[in-house]
Design brief:
By secondary structure, the chain is an alpha/beta fold. The protein is built from eight helices and 13 strands. A seven-stranded mixed β-sheet has the order 5-4-3-8-11-10-12, with helices on both faces. Strand 10 and strand 11 form a beta hairpin. About 18% of the residues have low confidence.
């Protein structure tokens, strides 16, 4: 090969090399730019709870953008976010009292975001009404956990117990069971790192939880699920937080009468369910309806003349006044 041919050959090789370097650099830059500018909204990990194989679960968010809460008060530690969990059979329709709970979070608590953790989207006419009247709902997909720290979880209630802890640890905010009705602003309680109400004289309820993100008390509570046994019904959900409160009273504020009392014992829940018995509910932050013990479903029409504490509270949330209507 002559000198001229060799020069042409090396020139072509050099040009090809430069071209390949440019292409590689462009691809790398595009990939890095996308990684920086595009948030990962399909998975969100709980700090300290995302290692595989130890029962710690990953939050899966396939339907929403990343969540931000604008807390306006310098004294508020708890974000104004309300969490719910919907782990029910897909045939279960969203019911009127569930709608009342969502409306109370939006109208009374004035939640900035209402996050509904679910493995199947709620449905039914009352769900359609909720979507129309509560614009701050965000659906947060997460498979119901089946184990924690290697311990099997079988009951939907226990699965919900775990998810509510992990959601509040990650985001902070307020957790409500779907039969809890907010009655007044929770702002006075948002200055505390964690707030729970009483279940009984020897138990703290987990149907209402307020906490700042990464609250130490909730992390300790969660870590104790290493001894979870699904046969012991309330051991980790209500008895354990009471025990931890006795050990760490500086970490938690307890409302003994204003969050979750009256409760499920018949002599207490009769003040919620029974017609003709009216509780002074205006002194309370929330009312837990204990709806699993109540065998009726209501509508916006029949609550107009419902002569019970539940009737008053439903009218207050739905119509803006507890007074009976014609």
């Amino acid at each position: 090969m002559g000198t001229t041919s060799l020069k042409k050959f090396f020139c072509i090789v050099t040009l090809l090399s430069v071209f390949l370097v440019v292409i590689h650099g462009f691809v790398t830059f595009s990939y890095m730019k996308a990684a920086i500018q595009t948030p990962n909204v399909t998975r969100s990990h709980i700090n300290g709870f995302d290692r595989p194989g130890d029962g710690r679960h990953i939050m899966e968010n396939k339907t929403t953008k990343l969540i931000k809460s604008n807390v306006t008060s310098n004294q508020s530690r708890v974000p104004n976010i309300v969490h719910y969990i919907w782990y029910y059979d897909s045939k279960m329709e969203f019911r009127f009292h569930n709608l009342m709970s969502l409306l109370s979070s939006y109208r009374i608590v004035k939640a900035e975001k209402i996050l509904i953790w679910h493995d199947a989207v709620p449905h039914g006419k009352f769900w359609d009404e909720a979507r129309a009247k509560v614009p701050v709902i965000q659906l947060m997909y997460r498979r119901a956990p089946t184990s924690i720290y290697g311990n099997q979880i079988t009951a939907p209630e226990h699965r919900s117990d775990v998810v509510r802890l992990e959601a509040i640890i990650q985001y902070g905010g307020v957790y409500f069971d779907f039969d809890v009705i907010a009655l007044k602003s929770l702002d006075p309680l948002r200055m505390y790192e964690v707030t729970l109400g009483s279940e009984s004289n020897v138990a703290l309820a987990n149907g209402v939880i307020l906490a700042e993100p990464q609250a130490k008390f909730l992390k300790i509570w969660h870590s104790q699920y290493k001894t979870f046994n699904h046969a012991e019904w309330g051991a980790h959900s209500v008895l354990l937080p009471y025990k931890l409160w006795r050990q760490h009273p500086e970490m938690i504020h307890v409302e003994w009468d204003t969050l979750t009392r009256p409760n499920w014992p018949i002599e207490e829940r009769s003040w919620i369910h029974d017609e003709g018995k009216i509780l002074n509910w205006r002194t309370k932050y929330t009312l837990h309806l204990c709806y699993r013990f109540y065998k009726k479903d209501h509508t916006a029409e029949d609550i107009k003349r419902l002569n019970s504490t539940m009737g008053q509270v439903f009218r207050y949330v739905y119509y803006g006044s507890p007074d009976m209507l014609t």
